[in-house]
Amino acid sequence: MNTVNNSEEVKKQYADSGNLSTRISIHDRYSVNKQGFGNWIFSNYRIEPGMKVLELGCGTGDMWKGQGDMAGRCETLVLSDFSEGMVATAKENLGAFPNAKYQVIDIQNIPYGDGTFDAVIANMMLYHVPDLKKGLSEVRRVLKKDGVFYCATYGEHGIVEYLATLLGRYGVEDKINKVFTLQNGEEILGEFFRTVEKREYIDSLAVTDVDDMVEYIYSLSGMTTLAEVPKAEIRDILLKHMQNGVLSVPKEYGMFLASGEKE
Questions:
Q1: What DSSP line would sit under 154-203, residue for residue?
Q2: Which domain holds residue 198?
C-alpha cells in the first residue's frame, strides 16, 4: 500500500489556492452528476440551529458558497486549515458570514476543549495527516458525545488509476495516497467511533476540452515524471482516447459519517 505523506510537499502543494482551484474547476465543468460533489456533501450534513461546527481543512471555502442558510444555523462556525494561505482565501471568499471564525489549525492539535463541537467536518484531507490516529483522537475529543464527524474522501479506483493506465509509458504510476480512502476509511474510523456509515457519490468526468484535462494532470503533485514532457504530447494521447468528442474519466468519491464513543 502506498502511503506517500510528505508534509512539506503537501504544504507546498497547498500554500496557495492555484493548484487546488485548477483541480476543482475540472470537476465543476465536466462532472456527469450535476448535483455537484460539494452540494451532495452538504446534503448529508445534519446541522440544527444553535450547533457549534468545526471544519478542518476548509481550503478556499468555496464549498460554503451559497450555503449561507446552513452557516446561519450555527451558533459558531469555525472554518480552519493548516495553511495560512488557504485560510486567507476562505476569509476573502466568505467573510460575509457573521458567525464564522477563520483560524489556522492542525488537526493533530486542535486548540479547543473536550466536547466543544456538535459537528466536525474534514473533507478530502485526512490522507494528508502525518499522524492520522492522533488527528482522529483529537476530533473525537473535541466532539460532543452525540456529535457527528463528517469526512469525505476518494476511492482507490478513480482518476489517478485511469491516468496511470493512459500515461504509464512516461513513468506515471498509481501513487494515490491510500492512507484514508473509501476502501479503508470505515476500519480506520472504527477505532475511534462506535458507528461508521459510508455513503458513495456516483459520478464521472465527460471532458470535451482536453486542454483542461492537461492542466489538471500537471497540477497533480504525483505527476512529477511529466515535468519534462511537453503538454502537447500528453494532449495528443488524450485526444486518441476521446469517443464522439468526449474523454470519459472515472471518479470514485464518497464520505463517512462517524458518531458515538467507543465503549
A1: E-SSSHHHHHHHHSGGGT-------SS-TTTHHHHHTTTEEEEEEEEE--
A2: 7-156+175-204+252-261
